[in-house]
Amino acid sequence: MSEENRITKRERTRAQILRAAARLFAESGYSGVSMDGLGKACRLTKGALYDHFNGKDDVYTQCVAHYVEGAISDIFSQSLTGDDSSAEAKLFSFLENFLTRLQDDVVLRRLLQRLLIDAKGVDLAAVSEFALLRPFSYVVDLLSQYKPGINAKTHIYSFFSVAILGEDLRVIAELLSPEFKGIPATQAMLEHFRGVIR
């Protein structure tokens, strides 16, 4: 077998592990996944997993960073980013696409939720650097341009936190505030955010 075929097979196996790990960690959280369970889900031995990763922490960090980074890249590609668009248009285009992706992609939503609750003992700095810093900095910059003088970091952090939890809390929100019924979640979040930053 040539070196090129070995590398290709290795890359395919690694991608398979990352996909399976993302689903498992999204469903069960960091503490609910073992290397044995991941091996079974991938139909690989535990030794084969260690051939690709240094351990559970490494798998977790890399799978979350890989999955979130891929989703964020998709969101950027679907959003207005050109110089011919205003900061406001680019900001709300990105936020709308982010909310839509969270609504449609349960694995992404759960991985982000798990980061919020499972962060203890996990290399959160590595995940943040690889997957979260770029979109956070981007929207903070846009909000600062759109609304100079506003505490953009606090508002964007709050938005992302509510967005990540919001889809799953929608049922409770509709019970507490029946006026939310019938309003699409994305539209409601964007309207709320516009009101907050006024």
From TrEMBL:
Keywords from UniProt, A to Z, are: DNA-binding, Transcription, Transcription regulation
- In the UniProt record, does the keyword DNA-binding occur? yes
Domain HTH tetR-type stretches? 11-71
One Pfam family matching this protein: TetR_N
- PROSITE patterns associated with the record: HTH_TETR_1, HTH_TETR_2
**DNA-binding region(s): which residue ranges?**
34-53
* Entry protein name: TetR/AcrR family transcriptional regulator
Q: Which organism is it from?
A: Zhongshania marina
